[in-house]
Write a structure and sequence with these properties.
This protein has ten helices and ten strands. The chain has 239 residues and is of the alpha/beta class. Helix 3 packs parallel to helix 6. The longest helix has 16 residues. The N and C termini lie far apart (35 Å). The mean pLDDT is 92.
């Protein structure tokens, strides 16, 4: 029987009078890539923020590795190994690449582990090693996205939350980035990815949920959903 890393049940999230999530259930198996798909305003980013402890008006249940994390602070969630690479990269533009990466490892006390994590992220993203002394704000968009993911990996995530990693990137860079996300997963990291690029995401995902106006509209194995032409073309848009 597969082990569940993350379990979300009956989750409701509101921003004032606006109900962003309405009674959603999501399950993420350990070692898998699970995708959250849907259009803008569907509630995808809100779901990740709620897991990370960044929303406040919440009802429901969220557990990670059997522990209830609803109401935990972002730092507490991070220390459990749930690491969020947010939408829009949110790197520190005035710091160097290396300084940004070091900040990602703020929860890790073991210096040898930090050293190993540097080696690992430079294997995934060799361009970041070449540019480690460069000011992060001068990197290209694709390089900044690589840095955002690499910074998250510096925290030794058990569960990596990725919010729109392909946004605004050229198709060739997107393809390379998705290949690296698959590699990260193959090396043992569970991934929950939010994306508008349905086709590319379903190619690497094991399972997917489609959100529509704060509710789960559809879910299933990625291999099955990718064959649904109406879903890809009409509902989510083909990329």
């Amino acid at each position: 029987m597969s082990k569940i890393a993350l379990s979300i049940k009956n989750l409701h999230v509101s921003y004032g009078k606006i109900q962003a999530l309405k009674d959603i259930d999501i399950s993420v198996e350990t070692g898998k890539i699970v995708a959250l798909l849907g259009s803008n305003g569907a509630g995808k980013t809100t779901t990740l923020k709620t897991i990370s402890g960044l929303t406040s008006d919440i009802k429901g249940f969220i557990s990670f590795e059997g522990r209830n994390i609803l109401g935990c602070t972002p730092v507490e969630v991070t220390k459990l190994g749930v690491i969020h690479a947010p939408e829009g990269r949110q790197i520190f533009p005035e710091l160097t690449v290396q300084e940004n990466l070091r900040i990602g490892a703020f929860t890790i006390a073991d210096k040898q582990q930090i050293k190993r994590n540097f080696q690992k992220v430079f294997e995934y993203f060799p361009i970041l090693e070449e540019r480690k002394t460069q000011i992060a704000g001068t990197l290209s968009g694709g390089e900044q996205q690589m840095l955002a993911i690499a910074r998250a990996l510096m925290a030794s995530p058990k569960l990596l939350l990725l919010d729109e990693p392909s946004l605004g990137l050229a198709p060739l860079i997107v393809r390379d980035l998705f290949n690296i996300i698959k590699e990260i997963n193959t090396s043992g990291t569970t991934v929950l990815i939010v994306e508008q690029n349905a086709l590319q995401t379903l190619k690497i995902a094991d399972y997917a949920y489609v959100l529509e106006v704060g509710e789960v509209n559809m879910h299933g194995k990625a291999d099955d959903l990718i064959k649904d032409n109406k879903l890809i073309e009409a509902y989510l848009g083909s990329h």
